[in-house]
Design a protein that fits this description.
Chain lengths: 182, 182
Amino acid sequence: MSTGCERRQLSGPCLYRLLSGCCAGLMLLAGCDKAPQPVDTHTIEEVVLSADAASMKAAEALDVAGTVANYSDDALVMPPNHPPVSGRQPIHDLWAAMLAPGTQISWAANKVESAASGDLVYIQGTYSVMTLGPDGKPVSDDGKYLSVWKKQADGSWREAESMWNSDLPVIAPAPATQVKSN
Amino acid sequence: MRTGCERRQLSGPGTTLRLVFCGCVAGLMLAAGCNQAPPPDTRAADAQAITDGGAQMLKAAQAHDVDGVAAAYADDAVVMPNDAPIATNKAEIRAVWAAMLAPGVSLAWQSSKLEVATGGDIAYDQGTSTLTLTDAKGVSMSEHGKYLTEFKKQANGKWMVVEDIWNADVSPPPPMIVKNVR
């Protein structure tokens, strides 16, 4: 592109053009640092899925501290057949009870979605758990979960809301008389 | 802000003209480059729209209007009822609510927390619920629980439920266990 400023013409009309161009470029840069940065929601979703998977790996290993590491300070955990739990220690205690010795647990995300603004993500998935009953026999349960993750001030992602429930109908214990009749 | 166009950096005749021209060009560039201003913060209006929609849904549930409740869900919504399999289409969602709103059931819920992503496209609502079952003899029992609901603003601007999960705070008492098995 010809600027009309060839041959070292650094005065008069040439200076005028150069200065104008320079000034416009500066203004363009200065004014546009306030424009929204494009949010890479795909990468955000990958980051949050990885964090959820890391919690799962810890739970598989019955590592309570690792399992709860991704909860935010103000997280609310809502287990079935149990009141909501908030606070670091109560959430830790809840998971300690769930990850009793002999427990086998796993979960996997079915769906993840980030807000376009990149500050809120939800994950929906399914879980499978096998615990040992009071008689030492395995009791299994399958279910589903929904969790809300929020970007923290330091840029990290933390789970702020977590709820799950069973796929299986609640079965009334068989009356003792029926058990004996068999 | 320094524009690079201060008077002292220019010399020679026509300085004022140059400044004016430079300012004009800079202003044009600023306007052209920054037309991607941050979107307006619509969160207050979004929260109100979601609250209004929730009130409408609750009214339908209390009137045992299954279609009215189902109308709150997006076409790709997922509903995770307590102690029952996941519902992933409108017919299944309708069946979940038809079973839930059985005769003798009275349902109520109340939001505890409603949060909209800054971009105004995704939101979640967390709250408490009470399901009261009155049998033929007029005996009532209540089950307290909690819910977590994800909303997404649709292409038409309406907020619809995309994910919905709930569970009970305690194990159901025997009469409700029978109800659930049915």
